[in-house]
């Protein structure tokens, strides 16, 4: 499956296997409707997530040929041991917040938070706020701040595709019939027409088109929510990368929001198949498969489409191990 949009809604193509959205669901599914859909899904298929439970360690017992998984209930603090033949690690590339090491960071006396902690825009009204990062979170938080009277600046360090959600949707439809480079060229030209030349504001496009870039590197484009207009109007100011912070006068900001992404931590407890960065030790195409029945899904920097492919490969592998004569599924849902 392929999820395309961010924060408050999700494109209708982001559906799970074996259950469509209810009749009349809008193309851009609002967050609450999506949550309801997921709740219906778990109820229908009797999936019982163990909420507030954190896996703390994993070890393979060669005597019983089983994985021993210790998980802690974060509410009551009790530990449970799960003994399983197959273990699928799907804890995501975005397990914990990542803030880059910036020289002088500790000398900044204003508020410095990660985007995941950004909750209340009202508390920034009248303040000078710098939003650091490269993706959708940066652009959405900057828009939110600037629309609520914060004096907002962003840092743009690397190239980025800024698109509209309609153009991305069009691209995803066309790419089924037309070569991706042609589609990319079409939607980039259209986006340039919509947004104009933003290079004067420090925003330049990567060489690869947005769809090709996503499929090759997993890097998503930025979907504009109105931020570009505020940048062009000078309401949001744009700076290049920050190399250091000097005291609380760091460029005179009262607060910094680091929309600098997340990182995987599964390597701390699945050392056997993930490297120190939390990504599979195996290169493709079998990056999802470890030894003795351990698998990982969603660690190949390929977005939801990649996760879907990993999930299908893993399910097929487990089925072929358990039921060698069962037919395997070949279709993927994006
Ligand atoms: C703000 C934001 C917006 C995004 N928007 C998009 C988008 O529009 N389109 C897109 O394709 N991708 C988007 N992504 C990337 C997106 O997060 C992934 O594509 C997708 O959610 C990954 O799914 P996943 O199931 O692999 O991991 P996750 O959705 O991260 O799920 C992993 C789960 O594992 C749990 N977990 C972690 N460690 C443990 C542990 N030790 N024990 C127990 N549970 C654990 C976590 O709590 C979490 O519930 C976005 C990411 C962020 C941060």
Average predicted confidence as pLDDT: 87
What is the general shape? globular
- The count of helical stretches stands at 7
User: What is the CA-atom radius of gyration, in angstroms?
Assistant: 22 Å
Which stretches are poorly predicted, pLDDT < 50 over at least 5 residues? 1-6
CATH superfamily of the largest domain: FAD/NAD(P)-binding domain
The biggest sheet amounts to: 5 strands, parallel
Number of strands: 16
Q: Could you give the distance between the termini?
A: 3 Å
Listed once per kind, the bound small molecules are:
flavin-adenine dinucleotide
Give me the secondary-structure category: alpha/beta
Task: Describe the secondary-structure layout.
Elements: E1 9-11, E2 28-30, H1 31-44, E3 53-61, E4 66-73, E5 79-84, E6 87-89, E7 96-97, E8 111-114, E9 128-133, H2 136-146, E10 151-155, E11 162-163, H3 165-174, H4 180-195, H5 210-217, E12 222-223, H6 227-232, E13 237-239, E14 255-259, E15 262-263, E16 294-296, H7 303-322
Parallel strand pairs: 6-16, 8-14, 9-10, 9-14, 10-13, 11-12
Antiparallel strand pairs: 1-2, 3-4, 4-5, 7-15
The protein binds flavin-adenine dinucleotide (FAD).
Flavin-adenine dinucleotide binds next to β3 and α7.
Defining key terms:
20% strand; FAD/NAD(P)-binding domain; N,N-dimethylaniline monooxygenase activity; single chain; Auxin_biosynth/cation_transpt; EC 1.-.-.-; 334 residues; disordered N terminus; alpha/beta; globular; five-stranded parallel β-sheet
Description:
Its EC number is 1.-.-.-. It holds the Pfam family FMO-like. Keywords: FAD, Flavoprotein, Monooxygenase, Oxidoreductase. One of its GO terms (molecular function) is flavin adenine dinucleotide binding. It catalyses: indole-3-pyruvate + NADPH + O2 + H(+) = (indol-3-yl)acetate + CO2 + NADP(+) + H2O. The protein folds into two domains: 9-95 and 263-322, FAD/NAD(P)-binding domain (3-Layer(bba) Sandwich), CATH 3.50.50.60; 99-261, FAD/NAD(P)-binding domain (3-Layer(bba) Sandwich), CATH 3.50.50.60. It is 25% helix and 20% strand. The chain contains seven helices and 16 strands. Helix 3 (165-174) runs antiparallel to helix 4 (180-195). It is α/β, with parallel strands linked by helices and 334 residues long. The termini are close together. A five-stranded parallel sheet has the order 8-14-9-10-13, with helices on one face. It has a three-stranded antiparallel sheet with strand order 3-4-5, with no helix packed on it. It has a two-stranded antiparallel sheet with strand order 1-2. It has helices at residues 31-44, 136-146, 165-174, 180-195, 210-217, 227-232, 303-322, and strands at residues 9-11, 28-30, 53-61, 66-73, 79-84, 87-89, 96-97, 111-114, 128-133, 151-155, 162-163, 222-223, 237-239, 255-259, 262-263, 294-296. The radius of gyration is 22 Å and the shape is globular. Strand 4 and strand 5 (79-84) form a beta hairpin. The structure holds flavin-adenine dinucleotide. The site of flavin-adenine dinucleotide has 17 residues, from strand 3 and helix 7.
């Amino acid at each position: 499956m392929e999820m395309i949009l961010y924060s408050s809604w999700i494109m209708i193509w982001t559906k799970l296997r074996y259950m469509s959205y209810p009749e009349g669901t809008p193309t851009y599914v609002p967050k609450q409707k999506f949550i309801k859909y997921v709740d219906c899904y778990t109820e229908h298929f009797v999936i019982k997530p163990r909420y507030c439970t954190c896996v703390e360690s994993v070890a393979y017992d060669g005597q019983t040929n089983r994985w021993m998984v210790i998980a802690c209930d974060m509410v009551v603090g009790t530990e449970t041991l799960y003994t399983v033949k197959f273990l699928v690690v799907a804890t995501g590339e975005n397990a914990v917040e990542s803030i880059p090491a910036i020289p002088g960071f500790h000398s900044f006396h204003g508020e410095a938070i990660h985007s995941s902690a950004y909750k209340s825009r009202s508390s920034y009204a009248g303040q000078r706020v710098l939003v650091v990062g490269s993706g959708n979170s940066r652009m959405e938080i900057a828009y939110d701040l600037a629309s609520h009277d914060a004096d907002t600046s962003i840092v743009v360090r690397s190239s980025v595709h800024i698109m509209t959600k309609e153009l991305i949707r069009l691209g995803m439809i066309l790419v089924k019939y037309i070569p991706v480079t042609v589609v990319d060229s079409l939607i980039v030209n259209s986006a340039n027409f919509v947004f104009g030349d933003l290079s004067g504001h420090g925003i330049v496009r990567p060489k690869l088109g947005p769809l090709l870039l996503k499929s090759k590197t997993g890097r998503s484009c930025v979907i504009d929510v109105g931020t570009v207009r505020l940048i062009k109007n000078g309401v949001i100011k744009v700076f290049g990368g920050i190399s250091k912070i000097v005291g609380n006068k760091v460029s005179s900001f009262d607060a910094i929001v680091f929309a600098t992404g997340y990182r995987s931590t599964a390597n701390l407890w699945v050392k056997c198949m993930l490297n120190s960065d939390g990504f599979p030790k195996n290169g493709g195409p079998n990056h999802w498969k470890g030894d003795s029945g351990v698998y990982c899904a969603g660690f190949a920097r390929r977005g939801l489409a990649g996760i879907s492919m990993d999930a299908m490969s893993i399910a097929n592998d487990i089925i072929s191990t358990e039921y060698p004569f069962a037919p395997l599924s070949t279709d993927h849902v994006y």
